[in-house]
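Two proteins follow. First one:
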Amino acid sequence: MADQEQSAATGSDVSTELVKRSVAMILAQTRAGAATALLMGATLGVIFVPAVGWAAFLAWYLVVALGMVVRQPYFHRLVQKHGATEHTLHRIAVVAALTSWITTLSVPLFSRALSVADLGVLTIITVGWVCLAVAVLAVQPRVYALYLAACLSTVYLGWVGHTGLRELLLIAAAMLLGAPMLIRLARIVQAQLRDAVEAAQQNAVLVQQLRESLQKQQETQRARSRFLGAASHDMRQPVQALMFLTDIFRRSSDPGRRDAMAQQIVRTGESIDGMFRHLVDFAQIDAGTMKAVVQPVDLDRLLAAAVSGFAEKCAARGLRFRMDVQESCTVSADPVLLERMLRNFLDNAFKYSLRGEIVLRVKREGDAVGVSVSDQGVGMEREDLEQACNAFFRGRSATLAEAEGIGLGLAISRHMSDLMQAGLRLESEPGQGTKVTLRLPLAAEGLAAEPPRRQRHCEALLHGRLVAVLENDRLTRDALSAWLVEAGARVAQAASLAQLQDVLRHADRPPDLMLADFRLAEGTGVEAVDAVRAEYGWVPAWIISGEPDILERGLNLPVLQKPVTPDRLLDAVRAAFPGNDVTQSGDLA
C-alpha cells in the first residue's frame, strides 16, 4: 500500500512538472513563432503585392500581425491568473493554433491571382510553417492534429480550380501520407519531453536521497564523536575511583577497612560493567543487530530474578524496597530484554534516590499489564523529562544525585520496548521522584519461558576440574585464573595455542573445560578450541570476547561477552558441567 501511494505521488509530481514545462515551452515557442510569422508575412509581400495589390496584402498582414502581437500578453495573463495548469496549457495551444492558422488563409485568398509557380512556392512555405508548428503544439498532440487538418485543408482549397483532377489527387495523397508522420513526430516530441521530466524528477529524488544520506552520515559522525567523548569522559570517573580504592586496599592493614574498600571496589566494578554493557547495547542498536524474541513470559519468575539482591542493596544505603504485585500473569515479551530493562529501571531508581522508598508494581490494565518502578528521588524538570530517552543525555538530576553513568540506560530501554512492541511511559516531578512504566501485552496461553537463573555452589562445580585458559591479555588471564583457582579449579593458562598445548602436555590429562579469547595474537580462539579437541577429544568450551558483533558471527561455540561477571561465568560452568561429579584434586605445577 505504501509503495502504491508513493508511486501515485511520484506519478502526480511528474504530471504536474510536465504541465509546467509544457507551458514554459509553448510560451517560449509562441514568442519565436510570432516573430517568424511577422517576418515571413512581410517577405511574402514580394509574391502577393504584384498579384493582388497593397490593399489586399496589408489587410491580410495586419490581421496576422494583430493575432500574433495580442496573443502573447493574453497567454501571460492566463498563466498569472490560473497558474500552469492543464486547462491553461490547452487554452494557450488552441489560441496559438488559431492565430497560426490565419497565416495559411493567404493560400485560398490569393491563389486565383497567383501563377502556378507562385502558388507552389507559397504552398511549400506554408507546409514548412505547419511543420515548424510541431515545436509549438507538440505538447498538445490532439490540438496539433486538428491544426494540421485545418491548415492542409485550407492549402488544398487554394489549389481547387487552379489545376486538374490528377494534380489535386496527387496533392491530396501527399497530404494524407505526410499528415500522420507529422502527428507521430508531435507525439514523439511530447514523449521525449515527458521522459526528460521523469529523468529530472528521478535525478531530483536521487540528489535528495544523496543529500539526506550525506546529512545522515554527518550526523552519525557527530553522534559517534559525542559517543566517544561522552564514553571516554564518563568511563574515566569509576576507573579513577578504582585506582584510588585499590591503592587504599593495598596499603591498609585494618581488616574492617579492607572489607569496606573491597565492597566499594565491587560496586565500582559493577558500575564499569554496566557502562560497558550500555555501550555494547548502543552499538548493537546503532548497527541494527539487536533483536527481540517475543514469547510468553512468566512475570512472577522473571521479577524474582530481576530483583534478586536488590532489597539488600537498598537496605545498605538506607532505602526501602517493596513489591506490589496484585496478581500472577504471563506477558508477551523477550525475557532477556525485559529483565535487562527492569534491572535498568531499578538501578536508575537506586542511583537517583537519596532517601525514601522504591516500589515495583504490577497492575492489570485491560488486555495488558503495567510494570512500574517508582522512587522518591530527586526527580526531573520538564525540560529534562522530554530528553530523558535521548542517548547520552544526563540532566540536572544526575548532578544532584551524583549518579554515575553515561546517559544510555533509558535510550536503550526505549529501543528495547519498541522491539517488543511494548509501551514505555516516564513521569517525574522535581524533588518528588520518578516513575517509569512498561506496558506489556498479556500473552496467549502457552508455556512461559523461565528467566535466567543464578546458580551458586561454585566450589562443588569446579573442585578438581582442569580448566584451560587461553587469553593473550596478561591482566585478564591472571585475574580469571585466580578466580578459577579460588573456586577450587586447577588452571592451565597460556597466551597462545602453542604455550597452552605445552602446558597441557605436562598436565598428563585432558582439560575438563576450555575458556578462550576470540582474538589472539596468532589465530582465533575458535581455531584453538578445534586444535585442543583434535588432540584430546571433545572438550566443553566457551569463547570470551569483547567484540560487539561477536554474537552475530555464528561461531558454533557458546560465547561470553566481556566484561564477564562472576555470575555469568558460573552459569557457563554450570552449562559445561550439568552434573556434580568431582575429579581427583591436585595442583598444576
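Second one, unrelated to the first:
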Amino acid sequence: MENIAVGIAKLIEQTLEIRGTCPECNAALYGWKTKNKDGSDRCAPTCMACGYYALQLKVDADTNKRYVLSLRKKNHDLFKYRSVITDHALFDKSLDNYQTKEEETAVAMTHAVDFIKDVLSGNPTHMILSGKSGVGKSHLCMAVCWAILEDSKYTKKVLFINYRELLERRKASFNDQMENKNQIALLQDIKTVDFVVIDDLGAELGGNGIKDSTSFNNDVLYSILEARQNKALMVNTNLTSEEIKNAYGERILSRILKNARQHSMQFLRTTDKRIKGV
C-alpha cells in the first residue's frame, strides 16, 4: 500500500506543479506542468484535498463574458436597427465631434454631460433642446445616446426616434398587416426602453407657420409621453414652449417639461452649422 502511495506521489511530482492555494481549504492547488500546443493550460488548477476546481472560476468568468458580449450586441443592434432615422450619417455623431466653439453649444455640452450622469444613475430625468434648425440639436441628442450606451457598458436600452418619420411609417403600416404589427411593437419599445430621444418634434406640422396638430398626431405623441413621463427622455424641437402648447395642447407640453427643470436648453444665437460647414 505504501509503494502505491509513493508511486502516486512520484507521478504527481513528475506531472503536476503547485499553482497556488485553494480558496476553500487552503491546501495546494495543482496544475499540469505540460501545456497545450497553443501554450494554454490543459486544465485549471485543482485542489486534491477538497476537490475545488479553479476551472469553475474560469467557467463563471467565460459565462459572464459571453453574457456581456451578448447583451452588448443585443442593445447595440436595438439602437442601430430599431431607431427611426432618415439620415444614417447621424450615427457618426458623438460628444467627441460636437462643436463647442460658441457659448451656447459649450453650455449645451455641459448640460448634456450632467444629463447623462442623471440617466445613468437611474433618474427619470428629461432634457429639452429648442431652437432653429442647424444648430446641432440632433447631433447632441445622438451623442447622448452613444454616451449612455457606452458608459452603461450597453446595459441600457436606447432608441433615437425622428418623430415625423415615425408618424409616416405608422400611417403607411395601416394597410400592411405585418408592418402594422412591427410598428405597434416599435411603439411599445419606445414607451419602455431605458432612454429615448424624440427628434425634431414639430417638423411634422409642416411649413414655416405653426398649426394645430392632428388628432392622430396628438394621440401617438401623448401615448409616448404619458408612458415616458417617469422615464429618461430627450426631446429636440424648433418650437418654443408656447408654440408647443398652441400646437399640441397644455397636456402634452406638461408631459414634455416634466422632470426637465435642470436640463432645458434654448439655442438663440448659435449659428447654422450646415451653412458654416462646421
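SUMMARY FIELD: The two ends are 85 Å apart (CA to CA). The chain is about 50% helix and 15% strand.
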